[in-house]
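DM from R.C. (forwarded with permission)

"hey, sorry to bug you on a friday — could you get me a structure for this? deadline for the figure draft is monday and I only need the backbone to look sensible"
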Amino acid sequence: MAYRMAVGINGVERELTIEAHRSLLSVLREDLGLTGPKEGCDDSECGACMVLIDGAPVNACSYLAAQADGREVTTVEGVARGASLNDLQRIFLEEGAAQCGFCTPGVIISAEALLATNAQPTEDDVRTALSGNLCRCTGYQKIIRAVLRTADERSGSAG
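My reply, with the result:
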């Protein structure tokens, strides 16, 4: 069954006709070419598909695209500032927090959601916020350091 919807994707209003059973992840990747969100587990376990829906982190693999009707969806592509990385993305690279990169888009999304609601998180806050994101490469220390450094730089209390 076809479903017609209007949704904001990374700040751009889009009108889409989709099959009602499709996941938001499949529409983002297959129809819109937004390949930042990854399909890892397809079961909301790994966080590789994380996007923001109206500012809240959501696993796009288990979220029906039709549920996004009338909402604003932000993918990792929308976090960047045009062709330039934002500060969190830049700091992830500088801190070596992105290794293979598969989980990185979801982690960036979860970290942005945290920093939007808590400008000065503790290490425990970061660990809790990222608890839905699995990473097999980094051991998390560099990721946590990158999020905390971003918070410090955004608040002007760095170094």
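R.C.: lifesaver. The mean pLDDT is 95.
me: no worries. The longest strand covers residues 2-9.
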